[in-house]
């Protein structure tokens, strides 16, 4: 079963956002300019990354159920 390209792109962007969010949250690396920073911005990046990865995971699970 192949994933559509749009789901692969969303998954890729989600992985990058999760990695950046983990760097911002756990390593205290500031990737955003000072004017755009806010409290818990690393956690927001992680949550948005997971949300972007969910469609690909749900597509895979739906394909497994059909088999």
What does this structure look like?
With 67 residues, this protein is an all-alpha fold. Helix content is 72%, strand content 0%. It is elongated and about 50 Å long. Helix 1 runs antiparallel to helix 2. The model has no long low-confidence stretch (mean pLDDT 92).
Summed up, what is this model?
The chain contains two helices and no strands. It has helices spanning 5-26, 41-66.
Number of helical stretches of at least 4 residues: 2
Q: Percent range for helical residues? A: over 70%
Number of strands: 0
Strand content: under 5%
Can you write the helix and strand succession as a string? HH
Q: What is the makeup of the main sheet?
A: none
- Overall geometry comes to elongated
Low-confidence stretches: none
Mean pLDDT value: 92
Question: Cα-atom Rg, whole angstroms?
Answer: 15 Å
Helix/sheet category: mainly alpha
Terminal CA distance reads: 10 Å
């Amino acid at each position: 079963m192949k994933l559509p390209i749009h789901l692969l792109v969303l998954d890729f962007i989600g992985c990058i956002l999760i990695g950046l969010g983990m760097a911002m949250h756990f390593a205290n690396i500031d990737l955003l300019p000072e004017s755009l920073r806010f409290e818990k911005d690393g956690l927001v990046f992680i949550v948005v990354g997971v949300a972007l990865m969910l469609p690909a995971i749900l597509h895979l699970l739906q394909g497994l159920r059909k088999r």
